[in-house]
Amino acid sequence: MQKTLISYCGLDCENCEARIATINNDDNLRKEVAIKWSELNKVEITPEMINCSGCRVDGVKTPFCESLCPIRQCAMSKKVTTCGDCPDMDNCQKLAMITSNNKEAQKRLRER
Fold first, then answer.
1. What is the CA radius of gyration of the chain?
2. Whole-prediction pTM
3. How far apart are CA 107 and CA 15, in angstroms?
4. How many angstroms separate the CA atoms of 71 and 41, rounded?
5. What is the count of structural domains for the chain?
6. What 3-state class would DSSP assign to 7?
7. Residue by residue, what is the 3-state secondary structure of 50-103?
8. Quick one: average pLDDT of 3-21?
9. What is the per-residue DSSP string for 9-54?
10. What is the sign of the dihedral through the CA atoms of 101, 103, 108 and 110?
11. Each residue of 16-59: pLDDT tens digit?
């Protein structure tokens, strides 16, 4: 796994379906991801929104990742490489939205 493809919160962008759809220009996968993410997040997500190069790399981002993700915004404002570099990581309620139910993400941040 490329370290630059670990998101600020520890998710694995390399294996994210949105990134895979983007790098392969796969409209069918975009449609599948849009449906799945719409159901999971209880908001309308269109296939056109499923374009992302990765959280911490240059390039296109999903609307949520680009400007709405509170974890990404916080990490960028603190100028940390990932949340694993933040001294507040263990007590961060924003980060807990991910790490409380994704132990792999938490492990990636601790391995930095």
1. 14
2. 0.88
3. 16
4. 16
5. 1
6. coil
7. CCCCCCCCCCCCCHHHHHHCHHHHHHHHHCCCCHHHCCCHHHCHHHHHHHCCCH
8. 94
9. TS-BGGG-HHHHHHHHT-HHHHHHHHHHHHHHHTS---GGG---S-
10. positive
11. 999 999 999 999 999 999 999 999 989 999 999 999 999 999 99
Tokens of 73: 């915004």
Structure tokens belonging to residue 75: 């990490």
The residue segments making up the domain with residue 7 are: 3-111
Q: Is the pLDDT of residue 1 over 70?
A: no
Q: Could you read off the pLDDT of 86-110 as tens digits, one per residue?
A: 999 999 999 999 999 999 999 999 9
- Among 62, 83, 61, residue whose Cα is nearest residue 9: 83
